[in-house]
Every structure is written in C-alpha cells, then in structure tokens.
C-alpha cells in the first residue's frame, strides 16, 4: 500500500497507529470514515461541498445517452452521448458548481449554460484518455438556486466525426449567504474565499491610519511566499486540489502579479509540502525539502508529483514583467540534498550559499528522536569540518526536541548564526562548528513548530555599530511531550515577546520580556522600512497543524483567529512599544499555513490559511483571498527614487542616487535608506528577513543622495535586496538591487560529487519501493 505522511498528519493516524491499522495515503482522497485511499484525481469533493453522481435523480438527461460502468468512474457509473443536442441538466442550491467527466480523443465540444446563460464552450479533447477530469467550474455565483445545462454540440475539434460528451459527476459548493454570494462583485470565476475585491476597512482621513483592502486570489493556497521581482511574488503550496491548474492537474505553485493580480501556475515536479527557501548570492531562489509522493503508481489522473523530501527546486531570477519565461527547475539526480528534510529552515550565509537547518526525515507532526534530522547541510554542498558535502551534526537540534521544527535563524554581523528552537536559543559558529548556548526563553514559552512563534532580527544600524538584537513573539507553553489527544485547540497561546542584544553584556542581561496586546500562535512579523514591525495573523488558542488535537475546528488544531494586527516600535521605551491604534481589523481567519510579507510598494501582503489535509470549504476552510495592509506612509505624498540604482552594489562601495523628497521635507529632513531583504515566509518563519540602515548623506541640492553599501557580507549577505528611502518616517517604494558582486556561491565540485555518490536519490521514496526520481 502507498504510505505517506502529511505536514500535520491527521488525528485519524494517531488512532490508527495505536490500533496498528494501515495509514491512509495522505494525499489520496480518503472518504470520511474510511481508511481506504482512492487515487489522487482532479475529482475531489472538498469538505463543505457535495457530489452528485451521473446517476443522481437531480441530473436529468434528454436525447440519447448511454450508461457505462467501471471502477474508474465516480460511483462506478458514467453517462455519455455522441448525439448532437443531447442535454444534461442539473439544479442545485449554492454558490459554485464543478462538472467532472472523461477526456479523450473522441471528445468534442459542449456548451455550458448556467441559469440560461451560455458561459463556455468546453473542448475536452485529449490525445490520452483521462478519467475524473474537471471539465468546467464556476465558483462565484450568488448564493441561491441555480440551473446548469450541458449541451452536446456534436462537433469535434479538427474532425468531421461526431464529438463525445460525458457526465461523471457534479460537485456543488454550498458556500454561505454572507461570505460568498454577496461578494460576487469580482469578475474572477473563483469562489469567494478564492477571489474578491472589496474594502474591508477603509477609514477616513487620519494620517496615522492604516487601510485594509481585500483584492486578488492566490489560485494555489499560499503556504510559502516570497517577493521575487518588482512585479511578482512566488507562492508555493503542497500537492492538493487547488483551483488553479497546469497540464490538466491542480497546480501547487504560482507566480502572483502584485500589480494586476494575475496568476501564472508553475510546473513543480516534487511535493513541496512544508519546504523552506532562500535566495542565493546571485539572486537565484532555491526551495528546499518537502514531502514524499504517496501513490505507488502514477495513474493517468494522478497529479504526477515525485518525492520532495530531498528536493532542491531552482527558480532562476525572473526579469520579465509578465514572468512568462519563469519556472521552477528540478532534477534530483544531480540537484538534491544529502538527506530528507521536512520542515527545514533555509538561510543565506555571508558567502552567498544556503544553510539548510534541521527538519524531520519524513513528514509527521511533532518531531521526535526517530525522525529528527539534527544536522545542517549546505547548498551548494560544502566541504566543511571534513563533511565533504554531507550533513554536519548539530547537537542543539537534538537537545531541543520535540517542538523544534522550522528553527528560527538569522545571520549575525559577526558571521555566526543565531538559532532558536523550542524553548532554547544559541549562536552557531558554523565555520568552526561550535555552539554557544544562550539563556533559555523565559516562562516556558516554546517558539517553534507546532508551538510556533515568530522571530526577527531587529534593524541593524551603523549608529550602534550594527549591534544585533533579536525579537521572538508568541508561541505556546503547551507541553510538547503530550500526545495530540491531551492537547486542545482551546489551549491559550502566549502573548509573550522577548528580545535580547546579542553581545556579551546583552547576553548576560538576558531576555527582556514584553507582552503583545493579544496572545498568538503562528503570528507573522513583518519589518517595515520605518523600522517598525507589524505583527499579524495567527490564533489566540491552540497550536499549528491540523487533525491532531482535541476540539478541532473543522480540522484546525487552533481556534480564535486574531483579526487585528499589532504594531511594534522597537525603539520606543519599554511598555510603550505596542499599539493597535489606527489598525484595521480583518474578517478573514489567518491560521495555520498563513503568510505575510512587505511588498516593493511598501504595503503588507497577507495570504493563506489552510488547516486542512486538502482543499476544504468548511470552517476553517482553505483561504485563497489576499489582503493588503497599507501603512499610513502610503496615503500622502511619498519620497521617490528618481534615478535607477545600478544592478549590483558591492561591499565598501558608495553610489549617488537622485531622489525626490516629499514636499515639506526639504529643510533638515530625517533621511534614512533601509536596505531590506523581504525574506522567504512560511510557517511564521521569516527566513532572511533583514533591515540594514545604510550610511547616507543628502547633498545641499536636496536631491542627491550618497549611499554607502553595507560594510561587509556578514551585515548583509550577498543577494537581492530592496532600497527604501525613508524621509521623516515616510517611505518610498522599494528599488531592487543585488548586493555583492553578483557571482553565485562558490561551487565545490568534489564535495558535490561526493554527496551525490554517498547518498541516494529520493531515498525515502526508494525505501518504500516507489519511483520518485525527479529526472524521470
Ligand atoms: C475542458 O475544457 C475547458 C474549455 O476548453 C477547459 O477550461 C478545461 O480546463 C478542460 N478540462 C480539463 C480537465 O482539461
Ligand atoms: C475584471 O475585469 C476587468 C475588465 O475586463 C479587468 O480590467 C480587471 O483586471 C478584472 N479584475 C480581476 C480581478 O480579474
Ligand atoms: C538530469 O540530470 C541528469 C544527470 O546530470 C541528466 O542526464 C538529465 O538529462 C537531466 N534531466 C533533465 C530533465 O534536465
Ligand atoms: C515519531 O514521529 C513519527 C512521524 O510523526 C511517527 O510516525 C512516530 O510514531 C513517532 N515516534 C514516536 C516514538 O513517537
Ligand atoms: C552591547 O550592545 C549595547 C547596545 O548597542 C551596548 O550598549 C553595549 O555597550 C554592548 N556591549 C558590549 C560588551 O559590546
Ligand atoms: C547561482 O548559483 C547557483 C549555484 O551555483 C546556480 O545553480 C544558479 O544557476 C546561479 N544563478 C545564476 C543566475 O547564475
């Protein structure tokens, strides 16, 4: 039987494991109450939707139809016709409908009508026969009774022969009166939780007021998010039944156009479920780790994904405005990690390479000694401490079990790496493989998965010699040795934030404790060019994952979504740093698998939430809507970059750039240039997120800025960055730049070859006898 493990595997598994029963395939669709997985096909009945088989009395056929039987059809039956004008009609109550059937080389054109209006002529010709395909879908109907009609035109593409049409099933999305039907203002055909354009909170003129707009849909659920160009963000998900499709199957990654909100699906080969990511020094993005495939056989209707546990997915710099020629490249026979990792953190080092930290050797839920991968490895592979391309053991990752997945890590200005996991923290001198343990996080708060908090390196400034200080917020005090059935979605989250200056006196002073206005697990912390931090998303109770604990809401292990962000000003006096004043409140829960990032425009993009095994329409369902939190500095006149910066900005250099300051800022303004890494965001971890204030002076002409590059690669590791000009607290838009010499990290061919020769391709999948070579 196919086996597999999910990002947060189901409660059913806990029970089954106890009972010694077989594990259901994680990504196979398992009918409620059943343990037998069926094939992973486009046909999918999301929780909260209802399927009507071709033999249902609600489907009426006129003209000549034939009924056929096969286990490959939904409920073993299908109706087909090759007679012109043969019609199938179906009435339903809800907000959306999908039509499933076969595709093949005899299939022709069919007209689809909803409520008497012709919406589409569907051409489902396919050279290879496919079953249970989604032939048509419409999700944005106003809530109510609807009438769907499918009419065979009798014609066929490029053929004089009659076209075939068939009906295997209809799936209805019920939706809700308030949340879906009434929002049908958008022209997209996605359901309300997958689209939209409305202002949730647009309050009047106050200059210090933020605004919130809901606009756009991610098409694939936004588990991982990173800004890749002035116009696009990359979104990476797990293999699941997303509405956006590619090559006839649901997509699990996409590029999102920040200006037009258009989507481009990406062709990912392996399962990127709970991967991490980083840019390298030359601007290439890597997406690392994931989950196995589960099906032993890639059936025609399967998504065709391969094992992602050792995956290194390459996304080369994407320069075109429409992202047309940008895609993800994978070839596990050469490009892979030495060891399987699920829930690893990936961080860019001062040499432009990636450090890949920890994770589990297979998917599951809370980490444990059996599945733990207590090592770091590098991409490209390095020969370090005699590793010759293979992983290097890290005791910290053993000592921090169980709740230590997705460690929080930041490169420090002395070239060492800060790491926090569970209740502990340390500084890792990676070049000498030495750990320096830091004081434990106070009051029993755990900060990493599934007790996820969030962490940031506070802005680095030449004013204090780039003294680093870290901030960790939220998480949970739930005992990580308890089984899921002793944990509840109602267990309170932590409101604690702690910060520590990472020099000798700061470390001996220890963690400084503060409280957020509201407790949160799974918060996201987003650095703004002003140096303030927006804390958004997350839940007031419970922990990360789905299907594991008591009192799940739907499948969610967490409840009580926190809807109002909090703004943190790290330089205000203690006790006066948090404020929610002027911050709008959302009405979209952003729980497990939510993300947030600063954009080149200077606003905060919020997406995701999917505490579910697969797409779900019940609370808390799969969320595709995007929200935009706009800081007050976007309301009035803003400073602007006038001349373009050079593409590369190397250490020790300086450059002159012309800018236009906003009116009223000309006499002795407070001018700062923030160099920012917007990071790679997933699971509340904002890897590489960084703000470095650059030494800057404004000429007497009031427009020429002389800007110095960061002094060295420890302060800002080589790679992409964004320059924001902040004048009297008002930020410009970001201007992209590549810090360093633009060359990639050094490639050690011998270490790479050694890694390849000493490790197997997709070893997890091989062990259980599957295929799984990404090159196949
Ligand atoms: C069937 O055809 C329609 C329109 O030609 C297309 O939108 C849809 O994606 C097709 N279905 C599949 C599964 O390819
Ligand atoms: C809606 O349609 C209009 C006009 O066709 C188009 O300009 C706009 O971009 C569309 N909006 C979305 C969200 O697709
Ligand atoms: C993958 O790499 C192998 C070995 O280098 C090569 O033979 C093969 O052509 C590559 N496949 C693709 C699809 O690039
Ligand atoms: C360790 O975790 C894996 C994956 O979740 C699970 O299958 C296994 O039962 C766990 N082992 C122990 C000893 O808890
Ligand atoms: C540590 O940093 C703080 C804040 O910048 C500074 O006041 C202090 O002198 C530093 N201590 C040491 C030992 O460098
Ligand atoms: C950057 O370096 C990596 C690692 O050597 C390489 O795979 C990638 O192709 C390089 N990208 C560019 C744009 O040169």
From TrEMBL:
List, for all copies, the residue spans of the domain called Galactose oxidase-like Early set.
638-737
- CDD domains, alphabetically? E_set_GO_C
Q: SUPFAM superfamilies annotated for this entry?
A: E set domains (SSF81296), Galactose oxidase, central domain (SSF50965)
Q: Which residues form the signal peptide?
A: 1-21
**UniProt keyword terms in alphabetical order:** Signal
Residue ranges constituting the Glyoxal oxidase N-terminal domain according to the UniProt record: 251-633
What Pfam families is this protein classified in?
Glyoxal_oxid_N, GO-like_E_set
What is the protein named?
Copper radical oxidase
Q: Which organism is it from?
A: Heliocybe sulcata
